[in-house]
Design goal:
The complex is a heterodimer of chains A (325) and B (202).
Chain A (H helix, E strand, L loop, with lengths): L1 H12 L33 H38 L5 H7 L9 E7 L9 H15 L6 E7 L1 H10 L4 E5 L9 H14 L4 E11 L2 E10 L1 H10 L10 E2 L5 H77 L1
Parallel strand pairs in A: 1-2, 1-4, 2-3
Antiparallel strand pairs in A: 4-5
Chain B lengths: L1 H17 L16 H10 L27 E6 L4 E8 L1 E6 L2 E5 L6 E5 L2 E7 L2 E7 L2 E5 L4 E6 L2 E3 L5 H16 L4 H22 L1
Parallel strand pairs in B: 1-9
Antiparallel strand pairs in B: 1-2, 3-4, 3-6, 5-8, 6-7, 7-10, 8-9
Classes of the chains: A alpha/beta (325), B alpha+beta (202).
Subcellular location (chain B): Membrane
Pfam families (chain B): ATP-synt_DE_N
Family (chain B): Belongs to the ATPase epsilon chain family.
């Protein structure tokens, strides 16, 4: 290794002084500090600089590894809850069907996103889909408004759709998610926002590496009646008898509210799972990158260290040979 | 690169072992999900894939059979768990707002709201009783019953003393209530606790 370095130095000095193999030329271009260009394009940086970089990259690797572990444990906790809540929205879809292409005047898009970052691309995906739905449902006499859950979607949507935002809710995950909290939230939304159809956009959790953007539609009772009368998918709804003294309209009202809170609960849990899973994979690739970077820096460090040792040797030897000679 | 490949190969089995099979949520093979939605989406936003809709995640329900089936298929779901998932039973008695309603296979399609009360599931000779807080029940024409409740506990987990205390507390609150909201809340408390009481005694 030292011989190779010596040979490199020899090659560099050769054009200046030909007969002597090793030269006493003291103007060594390998200055002990900062960068330099060798003839083969080898750059010599001070070892201190490289060492500092290595320390910071190693710290980053440790931090991202720890974040991955934390995300994994949080995922395990939320995943059981999310899977258990999956049965909740199925009866509603079985009864009322799923009509994302329903033609309504006022649609409200409820975008669910995370508060914290470093979770990959899931929030951008949700925002893109929300904007797509907004575009899909815009037209004469039709309007679409946003209800935003989570800081990340708020940051993205506030930039260009500020006038369309009705409600912003953040810090959802400060306390562990439970149905009471979500039903209060749903109540707030239902009270303050007028809607014909609510479209909830979230990332459904399939596996730790796969999150599918999904949109669930909840219709207001008037639209349900309208669709039932016009036939089509909801046409069977009229066949259902309604128990109790209340009219069908009142039952449908209660039903729509209950459906919204159930679908929201499932959506919020699924999004939380997706967030943790995305964070896991983002932190994993980040720590892998940091590891690669560390390997490359270690090689550079060793090269630099050996080059400086070689320089010392050269100086000593040339000094000694100058004394003798 | 080979190092990473071996790491990648080693990782998935561990995850698969940790991931649970999603029994209540299988992607249905038939994409009967709204084709009109997908088409409209692709016209307006061609670059992004359309989002999935809940229909593609649900097992489709069987159509109405011509003769009355022998068993009733019950789905009893709560926000925290599916207490019963497609269980075949003989009869369920649900506490609808109009009183206890018995549901047998071949019941007419009904939507009913539930009030706090006892839900009993009859399967052969065994009867399981739950106290439900409130919710909805959908009975479909194909002898499927979906019961969605906000809270449900098996009757043996109820404590009679706490029920009495709660009843007394809410009666006191009702008498001292001033606003309509407080009165309504106190009334709800009384309804639930008296239903609990009758569930325990009756």
């Amino acid at each position: 290794m030292a011989m190779a370095a010596l040979r490199r130095e020899g090659r560099r000095f050769a054009p200046l002084i030909s007969p002597r193999p090793i030269t006493a030329v003291r103007s060594s271009p390998i200055a002990p500090s900062h960068e330099d260009e060798g003839p083969i394009g080898v750059r010599y940086i001070s070892t201190q600089v490289v060492r500092n970089r290595m320390k910071s990259v190693k710290n980053i690797q440790k931090i991202t590894k720890a974040m991955k572990m934390v995300a994994a444990s949080k995922l395990r906790a939320v995943q059981t809850k999310a899977e258990n809540s999956r049965g909740l929205w199925q009866p509603f879809t079985a009864l009322l069907g799923d009509l994302p292409s329903v033609d309504v005047k006022k649609s409200v898009v409820v975008t669910i996103s995370s508060d914290k970052g470093l979770c990959g691309g899931i929030n951008s995906t949700s925002v893109k889909i929300s904007k797509g739905i907004h575009k899909l449902n815009s037209g004469p006499e039709k309007e679409t408004k946003y209800v935003i859950l989570g800081e990340k979607a708020k940051a993205q949507l506030i930039r260009d759709s500020k006038k369309d935002i009705e409600l912003i809710i953040t810090e959802l995950q400060k306390n562990p998610l439970n149905y009471t909290q979500v039903s209060v939230l749903a109540d707030e939304i239902l009270k303050n926002v007028e809607f014909d159809a609510l479209r909830i956009v979230f990332n459904k959790f399939h596996s730790v590496v796969s999150f599918v953007p999904t949109v669930s539609t909840v219709l207001s009772p008037e639209i349900v009646e309208r669709e039932a009368e016009s036939g089509g998918k909801l046409g069977d709804l009229d066949n259902y008898e309604v128990e109790g003294g209340e009219t069908k309209g009142e039952i449908l009202q209660n039903l729509a509210e209950f459906q919204f809170s159930c679908v929201m609960f499932n959506a919020v849990l699924e999004n939380a799972c997706s967030e943790q899973g995305a964070r896991m994979s983002a932190m994993d690739s980040s720590s892998r990158n940091a590891g690669d970077m560390l390997d490359r820096l270690t090689l550079t460090y060793n090269r630099t260290r050996q080059a400086s040792i070689t320089t010392e040797l050269i100086e000593i030897i040339s000094g000694a040979s100058a004394l003798e000679g | 690169m080979l190092r990473q490949a071996s790491r990648l190969l080693a990782r998935p089995p561990r995850l698969a072992a940790r991931a649970r099979p999603f029994s209540t949520d299988l992607p249905a093979a038939d994409q009967t999900a709204d084709a009109t939605f997908t088409e409209a989406w692709n016209k307006v936003i061609p670059n992004i894939d359309p989002p999935k809709t809940p229909l593609s995640f649900m097992q489709p329900r069987p159509p109405t059979p011509s003769s009355i089936p022998s068993k009733l298929t019950v789905n009893f779901v709560l926000p925290y768990a599916s207490a019963l998932a497609t269980k075949e039973v003989d009869m369920v008695i649900v506490p609808a707002t109009t009183g206890q309603m018995g549901v047998l296979p071949g019941h007419v399609a009904t939507i009913a709201e539930l009030k706090p009360g006892v839900l009993s599931v009859h399967e052969g000779n065994e009867v399981t009783k739950y106290f439900v807080s409130s919710g909805f029940v959908f009975i479909h024409a194909n002898s499927f019953a979906d019961i969605i409740a906000v809270e449900a506990v098996p009757l043996d987990q109820l404590d009679a003393n706490l029920v009495q205390k709660g009843l007394a507390e809410f009666t006191l609150k009702l008498s001292s209530a001033t606003t309509d909201l407080e009165k309504a809340e106190a009334q709800i408390g009384i309804d639930v606790h008296s239903a609990l009481n009758s569930a325990l005694t009756g």
